[in-house]
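tool_call: predict_structure(chain=1)
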Amino acid sequence: MGASPLLSPTFLAVFLLCFATLLSLLETALAETRHYKFDIKLQNVTRLCHTKSLVSVNGQFPGPRIVAREGDRLLSKHGIRQLRSGWADGPAYITQCPIPTGQSYVYNFTIVGQRGTLWWHAHISWLRATLYGPIIILPKQGTPYPFVKPHKQVPIIFDTEAIISQALQTGGGPNVSDAYTINGLPGPLYNCSAKDTFKLKVKPGKTYLLRLINAALNDELFFSIANHTLKVVEVDAVYVKPFETETLLITPGQTTNVLLNTKSHYPKYEKPPHSRVSTGKLRLFKPVLPPLNDTSFATNFTNKLRSLASAKFPANVPQNVDKRFFFTVGLGTSPCQSNQTCQGPNGTMFQASVNNISFVMPTTALLQSHYSGKSNGVYSPYFPIYPKIQFNYTGTPPNNTMVSNGTKLVVLPFNSSVELIMQDTSILGAESHPLHLHGFNFFVVGQGFGNFDPNKDPAKFNLVDPVERNTVGVPSGGWVAIRFLADNPGRSMVYALSPGSAHKLGSEDGLDCVRWKSSKSETTSSTS
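tool_result:
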């Protein structure tokens, strides 16, 4: 008798192929196309006893939330991997031209391999200070969370009331912000703000998923809830090994999902004398936060962040490196413009730089010039991969603090593995630099204080389960090492999110460094 066709290898292969195709079609059928319309307009907002006109989306501040599932297609983004759609990544004059007043643009992209919390924001001049909102990415239909299902999910956006116009005009450092806000509200500790307080009503003994977003321009923030412990479960739309903490650190541009388990009852010793007393008369508990300069806490917290590194959620860390880069990140100076008085050191202007080069904004989008074959004169592909002049980066700074200027890139071959060391400098004072990578996630394989030692520090890199994210803070007076795979063609970038010190590294294929300058016209916008 002949062999049964059900056992035939050819039949089995065809069956498996058809079954895999059916699953693929089923997943496609389950995915949705979600439409969001954003109207950019001026809106009067009253905070801190003053009414100001600010740029908003749909008249909301903060802007509306975008909700989607992994695999959904969005027509309408900070952190979304624009796979094969780099022209819609948002940064003005990098991937695309700004959206002129009175005109529109359709963002069309699919969420692939991400689930958690991200956010969208404007990407020209300083409009990001008010044009932003949350992106909530739910798991695919039928796919559970790798943690307990929450009773409710709550987006919480931190920000500051930014004061930047004077800094842009004088070249000096920005003033201290007027207030910190939660979901756009200052809270009861500020004048005229008792009613402008974010309040979260909870039920006893329930689990809440708080989706935290730091949209502040230049402030690393501590977050805590009095008398409660938080469990960190996700950062930058990537699951992490869960761990508990009373306080967490979140850098500008970063997102963190935490689980909050509410108490079963109000503390007995604080129970109000009358059962029907209003919540406004309950005692306000205040958490104890670390000092602003507590680098020890910051280091210990960031060291706890580890990828799941499981079969379902692997940590695909590049084990071998094709391209290595060493970038110094810090402040320098530029000459004051004629007929202008500047408040920088010795009458100069503060200028941010990477490897002592400050980016000059082009008038033609870089990606547009690349694909049209007209990049000559628009940018140079010869950005230095190491500082031209080496010095004791965290020690005594050099006497000459002037930076050079240029529109320069580093071109990366497609699918190359990249290691990038970002080193803070003490020029004009050491400070932390939040840096965000467009178009890619990366693995934070190492960090430390002082100068990076290429002979000793790589031996301590975590290549097993390092945290995967899209934004990282370069420690003040220290360094951070990241690795990623350049598998997303187009022009992406790493840029600093702090005012007066925005740097960009782009991947064009490549990398560039940017000094984000104020546009002459504030009437254009592009979102990211």
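agent: The chain has four helices and 30 strands. Proceeding to next step.
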